[in-house]
Write a structure and sequence with these properties.
The chain is of the alpha+beta class. The protein is built from eight helices and twelve strands. The strands form five sheets. It has a four-stranded mixed β-sheet. A two-stranded antiparallel sheet has the order 3-4. The protein has a two-stranded antiparallel sheet with strand order 7-12. The protein is elongated and about 145 Å long.
């Protein structure tokens, strides 16, 4: 079943024009000049709904009342026999849930003539048009089974709840509903070849970026950890001084005795210190414990799960945490992905999407930083295990002997 989306042009140019006629009967209108493909003779489904009007002021919750009233006919529909119960109407419901209908537009008009109510000539005329139309004779409105199991070729994949297919029309009008989590895939030969070429170039560049940014962030984190959590634990060691032993030349610089003969100089060697700065010291590399690194990464995932739970009310906290983990690990199954209902039409929508993109990019950088921080300690742990199991032998340091 394809998810239904609102279409302003279908509503304003088609349904509204018919509602303005104030006729309580099914029919069509002249669609000349309408945008998209509605100027061509294509079948559109139609539902009519009416209520008495006490004034020309539009009632509140009218749209909700219309949908609830049409959907209430489901109690009269028998899916097994594809028929309505005796003496009951259910065609409005079947058109409402028709699997292939994915565009909806409604019009409303305040009418003073043509009322279907004998007790009142003033009434509200609501007309809803569906494209493509449904209610074909002998066909069921939808197929029973698992949601999204038979989405049509070229569709935009599956909705967040895993129940409805996303039409290519919705992807065109709202690209954020179909973005980047595996539910969109190339189908043509050229599309697949371009995807391969892009991945061959893009994956190494992404890994290079994450490696470099991870190194920088790891150094910053080590510095902060040393200053905040490990104050005074930085050990310093003096650089090995480079010493050079020089022996005087056999004749150069000899002193003379009272007779003018050269005196042998002292054979004590002269020690020259080539170290320009005796206080030059270097810091040993600080190792951040695995637990601290893991807490930082888990904290980032938990923070993201809180944000997505606030943004998307139908997401449970564990679903949001699952989405954050799948995104940070670059798995991207496509069962959950960030989207907005209004197609980035409001400031709030834009802020949500920008925040989601920022969270993902910074999160991947945090993950790269975590790998950088953990790699040294993980290597040491494996070496220690190897020593205990006899698989690894620690290299012995060879002492240096000085010869006189």
């Amino acid at each position: 079943m394809t998810r239904m989306v609102w279409d302003d042009d279908l509503a304003n140019c088609d349904a509204q024009a018919y509602a303005n006629r104030c006729i309580w009967a099914h029919g069509t209108v002249d669609l000349t000049g309408c945008p998209y493909d509605f100027s061509t003779p294509q079948y559109r489904g139609q539902n009519l709904w009416a209520r008495t009007a006490f004034s020309a002021q539009k009632p509140t919750n009218l749209a909700t009342n219309v949908v609830d009233s049409l959907h209430a006919e489901n109690q009269y529909y028998n899916y097994a026999s594809n028929t309505c119960n005796d003496g009951k109407v259910c065609g409005h419901y079947t058109q409402l849930v028709w699997a292939n209908s994915y565009r909806l537009g409604c019009g409303i008009a305040y009418c003073t003539t043509g009322s279907p109510f004998a007790q009142s000539q003033n009434w509200w005329n609501v007309v809803c048009h569906y494209f493509p139309g449904g209610n074909y004779q002998g066909q069921k409105p939808y197929k029973s089974g698992q949601g999204c199991s038979q989405c049509p070729s070229g569709s935009g994949g599956c909705s967040n709840d895993g129940k409805l297919c996303i039409s290519s029309y919705e992807c065109t009008m709202n690209p954020s509903a179909c973005g980047g989590y595996g539910h969109i895939a190339p189908r043509t030969m050229w599309g697949k070849l371009v995807c391969i070429a892009y991945a061959v170039l893009g994956i190494p560049l992404t890994l290079l970026f994450l490696t470099n940014i991870g190194d920088v962030m790891a150094d910053i984190f080590r510095y902060i950890y040393a200053k905040v959590c490990c104050c005074g634990c930085i050990r310093k060691k003096n650089k090995d001084k480079v010493q050079e032993i020089r022996t005087p030349s056999p004749t150069k610089g000899w002193k003379l005795d009272e007779t003018g003969k050269p005196l042998p100089p002292s054979r004590e060697p002269t020690i020259i210190d080539n170290d320009d700065d005796d206080d030059d010291e270097e810091e040993e590399k600080i190792t951040v414990p695995l637990t601290v690194t893991m807490l930082v990464i888990i904290g980032w995932l938990l923070g993201g799960s809180v944000l997505y739970t606030v943004w998307y009310k139908d997401w449970k906290w564990y679903s949001s945490f699952y989405f954050c983990f799948i995104t940070m690990s670059t798995i991207g199954f496509g069962d959950y992905y960030p989207s907005v209902d209004n197609g980035l039409g409001t400031v709030e929508d834009i802020m949500i999407m920008v925040s989601a993109w920022t969270y993902t990019i910074v999160g991947m950088a945090f993950l790269a930083m975590g790998f950088n921080l953990m790699q040294d300690e993980i290597v040491d742990k494996f070496k220690w295990i190897g020593e205990k199991l006899g698989f690894y032998k620690k290299e012995e340091e060879e002492g240096e002997e000085a010869e006189e």
